[in-house]
């Protein structure tokens, strides 16, 4: 909860009761892993969302030196996520790529909560020395767990049946 900005709609204004009706609607192919309640945020079966495109464009602009233009793309999403009493634009607040990427990452992490997008962003950025960082997860009952940038946990191995039946496919770990 501490990752949310003050005034974030999801943190402050959405109610569990609002999702109950959606959770009773099942989507996907019956019997498959994608057969699940519509309200479950883990998988977007319809494809990439507009918000993700804004963040993608924002990152491209930031990485090519257009920091304010990139942060403006992030703000286009945030202004609909943060209550107007609390919204303060990111645009014009930082001057370096690293600082801009920090702001973008913080906002995008919440936007893409419980999606593979966050895993893929962390994995991708951990291949770049200037953005590599330990990822720390805190579980109240168990304490902190860290994943280092060079950890083998970032790599999903090929399933055994894939390598057993395809001799030209070598394991990727």
Protein topology:
Layout: H1 9-12, H2 16-23, E1 26-27, E2 36-37, H3 50-63, H4 67-78, H5 97-111, H6 116-125, E3 135-139, E4 143-147, H7 160-165
Antiparallel strand pairs: 1-2, 3-4
Helix pairs in contact: 3-4, 3-5, 4-5
List keywords for this structure.
173 residues; mainly alpha; two-stranded antiparallel ribbon; 4 strands; 40% helix; 8% strand
Sum this structure up briefly.
By secondary structure, the protein is mainly alpha-helical.
Detailed description of the structure:
- The chain has 173 residues and is mainly α.
- It has 7 helices and 4 strands.
- The protein is 40% helix and 8% strand.
- Strand 3 and strand 4 form a beta hairpin.
- Helix 3 packs antiparallel against helix 5 and helix 4 (67-78) packs parallel to helix 5.
- The longest helix has 15 residues, at 97-111.
- The chain is globular and about 60 Å long.
- It starts with 8 loop residues before the first helix and ends in an 8-residue tail after the last helix.
Structure summary, number of beta strands: 4
Q: Helix fraction?
A: 25-40%
Find the structural class using helix and strand composition. mainly alpha
Instruction: Determine the mean pLDDT.
Output: 83
Our count of helices gives 7
Strand content range: 5-15%
Low-pLDDT stretches = none
Pattern of helices and strands: HHEEHHHHEEH
Categorize the overall geometry: globular
> What's the Cα radius of gyration?
19 Å
Rounded to the nearest angstrom, the distance between the terminal CA atoms is 34 Å
Q: Write out the strand line-up for the largest beta sheet, numbering strands in chain order.
A: 1-2
For the sheet with most strands, the description reads: 2 strands, antiparallel
